[in-house]
Design brief:
Annexin V, domain 1; 51% helix; Pemi-like Protein 1, Chain: D; two-stranded antiparallel sheet
Length: 137
């Protein structure tokens, strides 16, 4: 993609389209590196941030949505069983109404059972996903 270099005060700059910014998830600052005639921009990562399950409730919605696209529904449901309310709230607010209508009651039902119920439900979901692949082909 070609982009024009524009005047920014006494400096020069480029405009990065919003669609590209969303893909790379830049925040307000980036790391800029120049090497071998190339300029590289990298997303800034807080070195003090240690990603763990508890940190999900502190993430912005865009990061949570990115994470949700990377995991299966069965893994999401399993992870939410017994999770703290702020974590559930952060996840639930980023689900579509259709997905939420399935996930929330399923998590609630599994929380009332025991580990055996959870293992059985997870295994059945794996089988159903395999069945969906067979039906599609």
């Amino acid at each position: 993609m070609r982009v024009p270099i524009v005047d920014v005060g006494n400096s020069k700059g480029i405009r990065i389209p919003q669609a590209i910014l969303k893909q790379v998830r830049f925040s307000d600052e980036v790391e800029l590196e120049v090497a071998e005639g190339k300029i590289t921009l990298r997303r800034m990562v807080d070195p003090a941030f240690v990603p763990d399950f508890a940190s999900i409730s502190k993430l912005d919605d865009e990061s949570i949505q990115w994470m949700l696209r990377k995991i299966s529904g069965r893994d999401l449901i399993t992870a939410l069983v017994g999770a703290d309310p702020p974590i559930k709230a952060a996840i639930y607010r980023n689900l579509s109404a259709r997905v939420m209508a399935y996930v929330e009651p399923t998590v609630a039902r599994l929380e009332e059972g025991d580990a055996r119920d959870l293992i059985i439900e997870r295994s059945r979901n794996i089988l159903c996903e395999a069945l969906m692949e067979v039906v599609k082909d």
